[in-house]
Predict the structure.
Amino acid sequence: MSRRCELTAKGPQVGHKVSHSNIKTKRRFLPNLANITFISEALGRNVRLRVSTNALKSVDHNGGLDAYLLKAKADVLSPRARDLKRAIEKKVGKLAPVKKAS
């Protein structure tokens, strides 16, 4: 299983472990991933995704999985999340862009 978030595409980063004597050795910084079950109101079912805790916070901030996927760019999403986005768009219909008051 790859260590990549299915919603934000966060993956491992590379850096140095620095010892007390300042010797630098390569190490990997892994994303904080968790298996989360989201509830999709549009599809009427539960969806299990492997996401970072940062993505979990973003989903909550945007008002749920459906709203987050509708706003997200498709090139960042995993293939499973892209399929979910298409299914939600088909079910709900493409939302019209909201105009901001100036």
About this structure: The chain has a mean pLDDT of 91. Helices lie at 53-62, 65-71, 79-92. Residues 79-92 form the longest helix (14 residues).
